[in-house]
Amino acid sequence: MVKPPRPPINATNAPMAIAASALRAQQARMRIIAENLANADSIAKTPGGDPYRRQIPVFRPQKLGDGYVGVEMKRVDPDPRDFRLQYDPGHPYADAQGYLKMPNVDSLVEALDMRQAQRAYEANLNVIETSRSVQSRTLDLIRK
To answer: How many angstroms separate the most distant Cα atoms in the chain?
Structure first.
């Protein structure tokens, strides 16, 4: 699929372009968080294997043109923290001491991260709405 060309960035549409890049970044962040939450209680698929490892989005500045800078998700890194251990000696995948490796996902942390991402998303939507409103009012003044 060929992407349509983006209009050039100027002082008029820069706030919307910057906010749109942040919307895309926060949307990607929310997908990663949702994946972490969905796998918070999963276990390894093989005895002695590792369970799901929490993913962390990494952002970087994105040049938009004419000196304007937005944000983009650069990559997704695995969380290096240790897995949680749960004592379950009867489980077939438990180790010799009776511990089962669980994902290093903390549902409370993920819920807080999700709320923060939602607020950032909403703030950027407000920037776009305000920018459109200013442009609309400016056009109304020019027409008079």
So the answer is: 81
Quote the CA–CA distance of 68 and 19 in Å, as a whole number: 11
Q: How far apart are CA 90 and CA 73, in angstroms?
A: 42
What residue type is assigned to position 106 of the chain?
D
User: CA neighbours within 13 Å on the CB side: how many for 5?
Assistant: 3
Report whether pLDDT(90) > 80. Answer: yes
Residue 6: band (very low, low, confident or very high) from pLDDT cuts 50, 70, 90: low
3-state secondary structure of 66: coil
Give domain limits for the chain. 14-143
Q: What is the pTM of this model?
A: 0.84
Say if residues 131 and 19 touch (Cβ distance below 8 Å): yes
Is 130 in a helix, a strand, or coil?
A: helix
Both tokens of 1, joined, read: 């699929």
Token representation of residue 74? 């650069």
